[in-house]
């Protein structure tokens, strides 16, 4: 089952435009909920956006190891 939304943050030093509002940006440490569309999935895959839930899970796994 795939997610229908993601909580994301921009990678440090980047501003990423919203899919439907290209003059509004995801920037800094602001956490934003976005739909799981191809646009945002590509941005996550390229490293421009960080999936907050996945990064927290990875940090917890590393801490437990």
Percentage of residues assigned to helices: 25-40%
Q: Identify low-pLDDT runs.
A: none
Strand content: 25-35%
Q: State the secondary-structure class.
A: alpha+beta
Q: What characterizes the major β-sheet?
A: 3 strands, antiparallel
**Helical segment tally?**
2
Strand order across the largest sheet: 4-1-5
Spatial gap, N to C terminus: 27 Å
CA-based shape: globular
The helix-strand sequence is EEEEHEH
How many β-strand runs?
A: 5
Query: How confident overall, as mean pLDDT?
Result: 89
CA radius of gyration is 12 Å
Number of domains: 1
Keywords:
65 residues, alpha+beta, 3-stranded antiparallel beta sheet, two-stranded antiparallel ribbon, 2 helices, 29% strand, globular
Account of the protein in words:
- With 65 residues, the protein is an alpha+beta fold.
- It has one domain.
- It has helices spanning 38-46, 52-64; strands spanning 5-10, 15-17, 25-27, 32-35, 49-51.
- The chain has a three-stranded antiparallel β-sheet. Strands 2-3 form a two-stranded antiparallel ribbon.
Give a concise summary.
The chain has 65 residues and is α+β, with helices and mostly antiparallel strands. It contains 2 helices and 5 strands, in the order E-E-E-E-H-E-H.
Topology:
Blueprint: E1 5-10, E2 15-17, E3 25-27, E4 32-35, H1 38-46, E5 49-51, H2 52-64
Antiparallel strand pairs: 1-4, 1-5, 2-3
């Amino acid at each position: 089952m795939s997610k229908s939304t993601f909580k994301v943050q921009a990678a440090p030093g980047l501003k990423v435009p919203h899919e439907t509002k290209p003059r509004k940006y995801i920037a800094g440490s602001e956490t934003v909920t976005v739909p799981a569309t191809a646009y945002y999935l590509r941005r996550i895959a390229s490293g421009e956006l960080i999936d907050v839930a996945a990064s927290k899970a990875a940090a917890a796994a590393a801490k437990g190891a």
